[in-house]
């Protein structure tokens, strides 16, 4: 049995933190290693708690979730930030993903989906809750908002991708996990991971979330 995913809960509402802790503590696959009421407390807690995943509310005092995600990416890139909030506004969804969040979920997400999302985020996969995923893809296709891509992507680096890499990238853009991509393309998960690493290198993109945004806005549907 693999080690549980270490989770840091970051939310300014005490009842929400306590509720999430009780919900997650019954799961063998998750270990809650700490709580924080805002981004400042969270940054201070990371070296001590060593989380794999930070569950982050979008709107908090002192330092909000979007700024926290950005700072985690700079100081603690090994921590996957997963935004869990009541706000489904574009400002927060796109702001969080561009800042480097591995995913965006609403607080009405069913418990089993939250646990699954935590595991996916810990594996480096992109996680978008149903309503948020629909808004992201629809909004990007209406008015593409670039996720600060690298030089290769800015120069239209999608042309450098092989046809199979383009297929993989398009599926990443829909929020599909590696296992789903592997099933749809009849390849192994290991091959999917290799393709994604190659795609990120060719496009000069930092992570899977930025690839998902790039693919949704530049490459179109699968």
Automatic annotation (TrEMBL):
Record-listed 4-aspartylphosphate modification sites: 57
SMART domains, A to Z: HTH_LUXR (SM00421), REC (SM00448)
Pfam families: GerE (PF00196), Response_reg (PF00072)
Annotated HTH luxR-type domain residues: 154-219
Annotated source species: Allonocardiopsis opalescens
InterPro entries associated with the record: CheY-like_superfamily (IPR011006), NreC/VraR/RcsB-like_REC (IPR058245), Sig_transdc_resp-reg_C-effctor (IPR016032), Sig_transdc_resp-reg_receiver (IPR001789), Tscrpt_reg_LuxR_C (IPR000792), WalR-like (IPR039420)
GO molecular function terms listed in the Swiss-Prot or TrEMBL record: DNA binding
The organism's place on the tree of life at top rank: Bacteria
Domain Response regulatory: 6-122
Record GO biological process: phosphorelay signal transduction system; regulation of DNA-templated transcription
Protein name: LuxR family two component transcriptional regulator
């Amino acid at each position: 049995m693999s080690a549980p995913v270490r989770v840091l809960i970051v939310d300014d509402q005490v009842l929400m933190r306590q509720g999430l802790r009780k919900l997650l503590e019954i799961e063998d696959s998750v270990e809650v290693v700490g709580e924080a009421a805002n981004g400042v407390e969270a940054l201070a807690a990371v070296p001590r708690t060593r989380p794999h995943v930070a569950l982050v509310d979008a709107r908090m005092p002192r330092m909000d979730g979007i700024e926290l995600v950005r700072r985690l990416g700079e100081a603690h890139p090994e921590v996957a930030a997963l935004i869990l909030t009541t706000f489904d506004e574009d400002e927060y969804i796109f702001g969080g993903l561009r800042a480097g969040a591995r995913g965006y979920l609403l607080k009405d997400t069913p418990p089993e989906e939250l646990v699954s999302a935590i595991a996916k985020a810990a594996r480096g996969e992109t996680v978008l809750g149903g309503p948020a995923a629909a808004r992201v893809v629809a909004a990007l296709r209406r008015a593409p908002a670039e996720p600060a891509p690298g030089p290769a992507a800015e120069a239209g680096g999608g042309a450098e991708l092989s046809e199979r890499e383009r297929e993989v990238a398009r599926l990443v853009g829909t929020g599909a996990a590696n296992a789903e991509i592997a099933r749809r393309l009849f390849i192994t998960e290991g091959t999917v991971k290799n393709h994604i690493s190659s795609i990120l290198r060719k496009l000069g993109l930092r992570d899977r979330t930025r690839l998902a945004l790039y693919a949704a806005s530049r490459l179109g549907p699968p």
